[in-house]
Amino acid sequence: MNTINARRERAAGWFWAENAIIDEWLRRLDKMTFAVYMTLCRIADGNTHEVHYSLNRIAEITGCSRSTVIRHLRVLQEKGLIRVERARKADGNNAVNTYILCALPMEGSVTGDTTLVSPVTPPSVTGDTTLVSPVTPDQDSLDQDSLIKTPGDRAPQQAEAAPLPIPSKKPKQVQPSPEIKDALAILCYGSAKNILPATWSRLVKLWNDLKQPSIDDLRHFYAWWRKEDWRGVKGERPNPNVIVQVWDTARHWNAPHVAPDAQVQGEYVWSPALTEHETKLLADYPELANYPRSLWTVKRLKEIEAIRQISKAKDGG
């Protein structure tokens, strides 16, 4: 006879999660968000329900990027599924955060005794092929506890599940003006040239997700990005996902008014006003107008000087 080893409580090789994550949250969470939550359940301490893994380690386990893990952890935190306790080292740098699994609600889930059949059992089992005694309960027992309960007699927890909602059609994306489309392309990629159709579609979706900002709104955001965000200070350009994440923060920044004529020559327009040093550089090297300011480096100036020398030599020859 083959022996079947059933799962035992607290045995090694498995982990547990609350029923509500399936009953209530499975259809309401993005697949990757659900995967990140189950990963936290897998690596959480069994007694404290705390996770002390770094973001890089969680990203390695889930097989996605660190930024993707951060995004899905933020969703779990906003929905109340986890709590995050941030930590810092003695020198002020960030330390490994603690992620705590919160108790989940069980609204609408089936709890308690789910038996739909009366507990009336036959008095005996005979030795022949008949497995159940032919004894039939009397009418009184049927009245008191029907063998098959009607939906109206069931407890609220045992009510039939509501039908799945029919997903609504996605609203049609509003098309921005060509000027705004070009501005978005310049903001994200530094140029409005050689943009693929799929990239244009992504920029249109970004504009709609941001509630259709104006050129002035985009100019205000770029001023904030270049001055306040460490990536912008380094000269990096924001991609659409980053813009969505930090848009509200930039919107509430009390920046001085950025004049519409504060522009860089060439196609890299509506940037914040040039500094005194940048103005002098542009006057000495007009070729810099063909590059974003993040590329106004000493190496770039040397390249321009070399090109000038080559052109001068050709003209002299």
Helices and strands, with pairings:
Layout: H1 20-23, H2 31-43, E1 50-51, H3 55-62, H4 66-78, E2 82-85, E3 98-101, H5 139-144, H6 178-189, H7 197-209, H8 215-228, H9 230-233, H10 240-251, H11 276-284, H12 298-316
Antiparallel strand pairs: 1-3, 2-3
Give a quick precis of the structure.
Helices cover 40% and strands 3% of the residues. It has 317 residues and is mainly alpha-helical.
Structural summary, described in words:
The chain has 317 residues and is mostly helical. It is built from twelve helices and three strands. The chain has helices spanning 20-23, 31-43, 55-62, 66-78, 139-144, 178-189, 197-209, 215-228, 230-233, 240-251, 276-284, 298-316; strands spanning 50-51, 82-85, 98-101. The protein has a three-stranded antiparallel sheet with strand order 1-3-2. Helix 7 runs parallel beside helix 10 (240-251). It is elongated, with a radius of gyration of 32 Å. The protein starts with 19 loop residues before the first helix and ends with a helix.
